[in-house]
Amino acid sequence: MKTVAIIAHNGKKAEMVQFLNNHKEALQAKNIKLIATGTTGAKTESAGFEVEKLLSGPIGGDAQIASRIAEGKVDMVIFFRDPLDKHPHEPDIFMLMRLCDVHDIPLATNPASAKLLMKAF
User: What structural domains and CATH numbers belong to the chain?
Assistant: First the structure.
């Protein structure tokens, strides 16, 4: 079983749920486990997906996912960021992205790149 971490900033949560709905069959066929930051996880769960919910991003959820990346427990990250908004937890966001690079974890930051990664995954 592969684990995919999903994170979406507030303005991108609906887009994340839509992306997951569009790829529901692939997620099920590939037996992918989803983990998510709190609110993203709640929205994902309410759309009918099974997901392990961690803390909300600003209160440590991004750091929790980063920790799992460092421990080798995440195989891919889909992080729909809102580049036009400021985020109080930007240091955690940058840490998560840096750890994806350090540990060679595929990272998609928009639906187009996520779609390509899902095809290759």
Answer: 9-120 (3.40.50.1380)
